[in-house]
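Field reference: "sequence" (input) and "structure" (output). Example, Integral membrane protein:
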Amino acid sequence: MLGASATFAEGDDVIGPEQRAAGRRFAYRDLTAAGLALLLVAAAFVVPRLGNETMTAIVHRSAESVRDFADAAPLFGFRDVHVGWGTPVAIVVAVAVAVWGPGLASRLSWRHLTLGAWLVSAAWAMSLAMVDGWQRGFVRRLTSEDEYLHEVPRITDIPATLRGFTERILDDQPDSWTTHVSGHPPGALLTLVWLDRIGLAGGTWASALCVVVGASAAAAVIVTIRALGDESMARRAAPFLMLAPTAIWVAVSADALFAGVVAWGIALLALSARRAVRFPATAAVGGGVLLGFGIYLSYGLVLMALPAVAVLVIARTARPLAGALVGALAVAAAFTAYGFWWFDGYVLVQERYYQGIASDRPFRYWAWANFASLVCAVGVAVPAALPRVFTWPQLKELSPVNVLVVAALLAVVIADLSALSKAETERIWLPFAVWLLAAPALLPQRSHRFWLALQALGALAVNHLFFTNW
């Protein structure tokens, strides 16, 4: 037995005076952690509007720069109180998941739950997008001149594009890439070029790809937790993954695509580690391919090595490592053979980062405001559950949810300290955020409807009070 506090940390019912006292202590910690997270968010919204030059969201301010880059700080967007035809749909989805989600998640067959997590996550994301309307909220999201699609019609020779990719990263180079293409490896651009080549051109198809793959991360996370030996916690986590505020940026940002790709890479690694599939070696190679492709979608996804290592630690095996390395190195070899050297791109993108708006975003604000953005993306249930995540008996026993959440937290801390994620972390950190969303599974089951309702209210508030850039 782990003791009363650990038992309550798992969300089990408590009995007896000692257990009830332990339950009250943990409940107090839950609410305190959630309250502190809300104070952080409030401070991040208020501080930039106090006129303090030493603690501001943007320096060298002008009315135009504040409107374009800091109007909704710490979120990237602008203030815009609005409703849309997606509003009632989003409310219906939210109520349905909050009321019936926990019960259904505990009873459905595993196959139906996995598919349901994917479909409901996509429905929630689309209903929030439709608050902004079909064109504004979905079709045109990836079509601005700063986005990947702007470059797609200009790619006529893929090998030549890869050979010359790094030459066009810096902003002072002739014919430099648009903002998003220059800030990432060529994997995302190539994905949309391939989509265009098969006849699925334009913003609608690109957005649909991001939503479908991004929403699938909900299924990947619960598949991983179950594969690592804790189906009960996977089922408890499912409603929180379905009703996550991250859905605002799943519909639509390319980072949702990134999140889905690497989430399934981790899931395949877990399935291989526990030999939960017929061909575990093949799953290991597949996981390596997806994780390897991930670092060619975004440089920062090299930090997905932390959740990957966490999977091997939880499973107490390094057996899938060889296959995963083969898969990842095969991806790297292909890109290198066609002329793109990842390390050159990474060095140049750091210089390019400070040629843009990042130079006017002071780290002294964004170092902590990034986490306020993250709270907006994952909702208050995640910080509420953190005291239960850092429960030593659970960590010592390598509980899958606890260890995976700690690995994801470590990844975002490193990303933050790099100073290469100043602002926009509500979307940039999506690949890490989806793993944090498993944390509320540790909250007492009888409180899940309450926390799900708060998650939904937070997402609805953000989506109706602001127009986010993604």
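Strands lie at 77-79, 466-468.
Residues 16-46 form the longest helix (31 residues).
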